[in-house]
Amino acid sequence: MSYRGNGILPARLRSVGLDAGVIRTLAQHTHHITLAKGQTLCPACENMGLALVCQGTLIRQVGFHDGTVSSTELLFSDQFLFSGGTTSGADHNVCFRALEFTEIEWLGMDIIYQLCRENNGFLERYLEKKHRYSRMVEDHLLLRTILSKKEHLMITLAMIFSAKLRRNENAIKITIEELCTVTGSTRQYCSKVITELCQNGILINHYGSLELLDYSALKAQLGSDARRHYELFRAKPV
Fold first, then answer.
1. Quick check: 221 and 230 in contact, CB under 8 A?
2. Between 82 and 49, where is the model more confident?
3. Domain boundary among 82, 111, 143
4. 3-8 contacts, C-beta under 8 A, 24 or more apart
5. 105 and 27 within one domain
6. Which of 26, 83, 90, 211 is least surrounded, with the fewest CB atoms within 10 Å of its CB?
7. Is the pLDDT of residue 119 over 70?
8. Beta bridge partners of 31
């Protein structure tokens, strides 16, 4: 379901320094869409140029020619989402699946292109944010090769609950299988680590959702390498 937005995206863009005229134009062209848990969104199919996750959690999924699907990262509220490619060469194989009820405000590629042509300030901000988003997508993938299996799983959980705590929430609806696809670990290994965290009083596994009991103890599980990468991600949100 898509309709006119509530002004959250224009307000968020105002905070990054765009002028009032651009913000007024954006407000007139902002759309709003809601996704129920399990629903999938293809930004390229909707001709999305820029979107903001207002509420909820998305998992980014890439489909390959052999029919397999790989999950690469999680997106939380107050994070930007960019559609890759151009209108004629967009990434139709990239989708986002809602792990819980999610609200998104978005702008079409046509209005993005128009503003880029008319306003150098918007062009610079848009390219800066899109470049940073692309780098973070790459960084999430690289972490799988840099960190150990346990470190990557721990940093993923730490980032999940860091985003949740900023919204005064301490639980996320995510299954072990979904966590496996993001971290690249096997179901057996993920289950083993989650069980250990539950035994140590850090998490509660509700089998379909995870509840955080002790965030400090969760961060303490990060090794020195994982903690350094975690702090870098926290220091440069998109």
1. no
2. 49
3. 143
4. 3/31, 3/32, 4/30, 4/31, 4/32, 5/30, 5/31, 5/32, 5/105, 5/106, 6/32, 6/54, 6/105, 8/52, 8/54, 8/105
5. yes
6. 211
7. yes
8. 4, 106
Answer with the one of 143, 172, 190 that is the final residue of a domain: 143
pLDDT bucket at 237, cuts 50 / 70 / 90: very low
Which range of residues forms the domain containing residue 200?
147-235
At a CB cut-off of 8 Å and minimum separation 6, what does 111 contact?
A: 25, 26, 29, 49
Do residues 10 and 25 both lie within one domain? yes
SS3 content of the chain, % helix, strand, coil (to 5): 45, 25, 30
Please give the Cα distance from 157 to 213 (Å, whole number). Answer: 13
62 and 114 co-located in one domain: yes
pLDDT computed for residue 135 by the predictor: 61
